[in-house]
Amino acid sequence: MTTFAGRETAAPSAATFIELDEQWSTHNYHPLPVVIAEASGATVTDVEGRSYLDFLSGYSALNFGHRHPDLIDAAVAQLGRVTLTSRAFHHDQLGLFCRELAELTGTEMVLPMNSGAEAVESAVKLARKWAHKVKGVPDGTAEIIVAGSNFHGRTTTIVSFSTDETARADFGPFTPGFVTVKYGDAAALRDAITPRTAAVLLEPVQGEAGVIVPPEGYFADVRAACDEHNVLLIADEIQSGLARTGTVLALDHEGVRADVYTLGKALGGGILPVSAVVGSRDVLGVLKPGEHGSTFGGNPLACAIGRAVVKLLRTGEFQQRSAELGAHLHARLTELVGSGLSEVRGRGLWAGIDIAPGGPSGREASEALAARGVLCKETHDHTLRVAPPLVITREELDRGVDAIAEVIRPA
């Protein structure tokens, strides 16, 4: 017996919880019919006791796995001291967090926020203010160049420059000031730059689009164009950063530095939302008191957890695990091209895999994988994203790939 809804009853089934969700929560997601009750490392357990391999990692929010002991210890210790002060006062975790994160990312200043979308919104505001105050673009006319098939969040301003009609439909009027070019086309981006251009905002690897890696030399060309025209380069590393691709920042693979980076997801250790904008003092320094803020941004609990995340990354262990296990993952997945897969893309422990024509849809494949004890999720009709926690073992990785092979194998 267990206590449910205030009374003693038999342990509720997954169907009970799914029915509650369907009745009382807004239907802005289409989750798989799995009800998770516990988790540890790369494994989750549902309310009926079934175990699953997590091959999604909360869209990279769980890079360090579920309930990493170092991160839980940091959270518990801070919970016993102070969790929130608001930025009306100083506290003893903020400066340390900002310094340590700046040192890790090779930047000069940190603006802590909460969600990834908040970080992107903050970067947009920074770029516009920098353009007006530093570059001399007339106020209200600054433009930011973005890429088609981007994903940077779901606020009104961010969906204004999305090319995904599902994200945009019925949410207008949209925020002006954005110019869209094809991802990976440096010539098109260069042609789009005008005297009004404040910044270029790009993902080093496009996640929602299906883990799209840009052509070799693309970011070097973008960096050169930005330098030539005094334009900021903003790299959205919310999903790609913090060891997911085998380096601290995915842009490191390109040998290119951005002026500004947005970080999130894994920065909160899978415990709570933590995000940040990090970059040049010349850019972040344009903000003055009262011009931007957040009640919870940079709170003591978030900073303590963020510091523990930075400490894990300083060892290089997770970058190495992602690089080495990622090479194994991609080798295994590439073997399936022609046997159910049509293409494999990605870097590190992150892959987008396209199911060949005639195979199951992405949703059907996700459901079949769940039935085999592997949690993955589709993006678009016939693409799966594979992003296991970086603590996964080689044996667990092989078990997950074996399940994928069964599901997508032609009849």
Key attributes of the depicted protein:
alpha/beta; seven-stranded mixed sheet; four-stranded mixed sheet; 411 residues; globular
Short description:
The protein is an alpha/beta fold and 411 residues long.
Number-wise, the strands total 17
For the sheet with most strands, the description reads:
7 strands, mixed
Q: Which bin fits the share of residues in helices? A: 25-40%
> Unreliable runs, pLDDT <50, ≥5 residues?
none
By DSSP (H or I, 4+ residues per run), the number of helices equals: 14
Distance separating the two termini: 44 Å
Shape: globular
Strand order of the biggest β-sheet: 6-12-11-10-9-7-8
Beta-strand proportion: 15-25%
Structural class: alpha/beta
Radius of gyration: 22 Å
Instruction: Quote the average pLDDT.
Output: 97
Describe what this molecule looks like in 3D:
The protein is of the alpha/beta class and 411 residues long. Helix content is 36%, strand content 18%. The strands form 4 sheets. Strands 6-12-11-10-9-7-8 form a 7-stranded mixed sheet, with helices on both faces. Strands 3-4-5-15 form a 4-stranded mixed sheet. It is globular, with a radius of gyration of 22 Å. The model has no long low-confidence stretch (mean pLDDT 97).
